[in-house]
Amino acid sequence: MASHAVEIEDTSICVFLLMHSVSYRIFNHQRWDRPDLEYLQHLLQLRAGLLYKNSFVRFCLVGSFGVLVDMLTLYVLSDPSTLHWGLTRSKIIGAELALISNFLMHDAWTFAARIGANRGIRAKLQRFLKFNALCGLGLILNIGILNILFNRVGLNRYAANAIAIVLVTVWNYTLNLKLGWRTVSVDIEPRRRLRRLS
Predict the structure, then answer these.
(1) Does residue 104 form part of some domain?
(2) Same domain, 80 and 178
(3) Are 7 and 45 part of one and the same domain?
(4) pTM to 2 decimals?
(5) Could you tell me which of 126, 53, 148, 138 has the C-alpha nearest to residue 99?
């Protein structure tokens, strides 16, 4: 909890300094000297670094790769110029391939700090099944939105898919953060007291 507060504080300070530096130069009609530009570049790098550490940003970066996998699979399987399979079947296959690649990257990077000592194959398989189940709920929402936008509204299949993915992203992130990679702290002190009593 404390590290999260520090991250927010650092981000706020960085944004404040960046905005102050830019607005001061603009409103005072001052030239940008080389040290000023280097300072501005340094602030931007700090801000980018803080964003890069944010789990939601990481989730979205990994998800971007998953979107590419999903869209490419959707194109190959459902487009009339390729295999021309049904939209829903193609979406399910594309989403599952994206889920597998996303899980591997989330487990290794996005939520790696939340794994703790649970790094074995069995724990990884449990996390994968939980991730698949949680994102499966998101997939049901995604398919519903995709079909409504494509079949009822008349949007292009790729635009409809992109909108559905964006709408379901927050859902998937929240569920996975709270349930998929949650850390479980076990208080072993009460167990020791119980052993002493018996």
Answers:
(1) yes
(2) yes
(3) yes
(4) 0.67
(5) 138
